[in-house]
Every structure is written in C-alpha cells, then in structure tokens.
Write a structure and sequence with these properties.
Elements lengths: L2 E5 L8 H14 L4 E6 L4 H5 L8 H6 L9 E4 L2 E4 L5 H8 L8 H6 L7 E6 L5 H10 L1 E7 L2 H21 L4 E8 L6 H14 L12 H8 L4 H4 L6 H17 L1
Parallel strand pairs: 1-5, 1-6, 2-4, 2-5, 6-7
Antiparallel strand pairs: 3-4
Helix pairs in contact: 1-11
This protein binds adenosine-5'-triphosphate (ATP) and magnesium ion.
Magnesium ion binds next to helix 1.
Length: 251
C-alpha cells in the first residue's frame, strides 16, 4: 500500500523542502519507489534536485492530462510532480471547482506503483496547503530551533482540527522533526522543551542538525547523499529514514 506523508509548517524556511528531498532520496536509495508532489509555487523541489520539468502540479490540478504525463523521473526509484509559478493562478482557478479541497486527493487516487508519496507545501494555509493536508492525512512537521516556528506549528495544529471537523477527516501529525538543530545551544534546549510540551515526546524524530552541506548540495542540484556522502548530516537523515520506514511497517 502507498504511504502518503505531507511535510508542513506555516513558517517559511523551516527546511521543509530540504527534508522532503532528502527523505525521498534516502527512501529511494533503500529500494523504495517514491513520488514527490510539489504543492508550492516556488518550485524548489525540482531546483534542489537539479532537474527541469515541462509539466507537473499545474497540469495535475487544473489540466486534463493523465497523471502519468505530469510525472518526471529524476533518480532511480524517485519521480516528482514538479511545480512552478503557474501554481498560484491555478489555485485561484481551483476556488471555483466543486470539492475544491479534494482536487489533489482525487487526482492521486489514480496513482499506483509507489511505496511512498511525499507532498511538499509552501509556508501558508491556502487552498493548496488544504489540498496537501487532505491528500496526505499524515503530516511531518519540521520545526527549526526558533520560537516563531513553534508558533507556526501551533497554528498548524489548530487548522488540522478545523479541517478534520469541517470535512470529517482524520488528518494527524505523525512526525515532528527539529531542524537547524544545534545541540547544547541554550535556544535549542528551550525550543525543544516547547516542542515537547506541544506534541509530547513520542512524535519527535531526528533531529536534523544545521549543516552547510545541505545548502551547498542544493546549490548544485544534488542531495547531500550524492554531493557529500560522508557529510555529518547524513546520519541524521538516516536516523529519520529508519523511523519513517519502521512506522510504515507497523501500520
Ligand atoms: N539542515 C540544514 N542545515 C543548513 N541549511 C539548511 C538545512 N536545511 C535546509 N537548509 C537551507 O535553509 C534554506 C531553507 O530551506 P528549505 O528551502 O528547505 O526550507 P522551506 O521550509 O522549504 O522554505 P519555504 O518555506 O520557503 O518553502 C535553504 O537555503 C536550505 O538549503
Ligand atoms: Mg519549501
């Protein structure tokens, strides 16, 4: 069965897309078949993977093409549905659609053959984010070691409850991942205490340390697995991968 995971936090620059791309690549390297859907008009997924795509999320949501025509293979075992700035006008068009919050969910119902579908979102609570939450049901929330990111996570929890109530859904936060983690730094310790009291200790995975290899790899369109396999951030990603795969096995 395909496992879906939406990576979300309403604050910008939490490391969401970096997390999606590394999780996807790590899963693919472990023999899993992975599809990443980019629901952010910034189009960062394809940029971070160093690829171009002529069609993608825009066509998926408002076009009439078969889903297969929206998919771009990018690595062994890893495909993407890429986005670009056309996704913003697409979301305005979607406002007039019937069941507008379920457009992505319904389109993905016809996608088969993947072990994981990971959905990246932009830093806002718009119709695209609502579609991403409903299509994924299970969420991974990256939280950078800054108090404003905890505020973003609180807003997210409120909106999860709202969507569940309005649309009779069972959306839940499955994984909370501290990012830009600096062990022993006073701020990290304080933010972690706030994160634990908000989510409880059982959902916290990772953490992913702050490491320049992540942005340097993105700068040349690669993941750190390819750019610097011995990077000190690789064990962090591997630990997170293990937690995600074990959780998938237990379902
Ligand atoms: N662990 C890390 N260590 C150092 N830099 C990182 C790390 N993770 C991400 N970055 C860098 O931080 C910046 C923001 O990361 P990213 O684009 O993944 O965040 P985002 O939450 O997706 O942002 P947005 O809200 O704009 O979509 C990028 O330049 C990225 O390369
Ligand atoms: Mg992003």
């Amino acid at each position: 069965m395909t496992k879906r995971l939406g990576i979300m936090n309403y604050k910008g620059g939490m490391g969401k897309t970096s997390l999606v791309v590394h999780l996807a690549m790590g899963l693919a390297l472990n023999g899993q078949r992975v599809l990443v859907v980019d629901m952010d008009p910034q189009g960062s997924v394809k940029a971070m993977l160093g690829v171009k795509a002529s069609s993608g999320t825009y066509e998926l949501l408002v076009g009439k093409q078969p889903v297969a025509d929206c998919i771009t293979p990018v690595r062994d075992g890893l495909d993407i549905i890429a986005s670009d700035e056309r996704l913003f006008p697409a979301s305005m068009q979607m406002v007039g659609f019937p069941n507008r919050e379920f457009v992505l969910h319904n389109r993905l119902e016809t996608v088969h053959g993947y072990d994981y579908i990971l959905i990246d979102s932009g830093p806002s609570f718009d119709l695209l984010a609502q579609n991403a939450m409903i299509a994924s049901q299970n969420l991974m929330v990256p939280i950078s070691m800054d108090f404003m990111s905890v505020v973003g996570a609180k807003q997210l929890l409120k909106n999860v409850k709202l969507l569940n109530r309005l649309f009779d859904q069972l959306i839940q936060v499955q994984h909370v991942v501290p990012t830009f983690y600096a062990q022993r730094q006073a701020k990290t310790i304080k933010v972690m205490a706030a994160v634990e009291s908000l989510f409880g200790p059982d959902k916290i995975r990772g953490p992913i340390r702050s490491c320049a290899d992540v942005s340097n790899a993105a700068g040349v369109g690669q993941t750190v697995f390819e750019y610097k396999p011995k990077s000190r951030v690789i064990p962090d990603y591997n630990q997170l991968l293990k937690a995600v795969m074990i959780e998938g096995d237990n379902e």
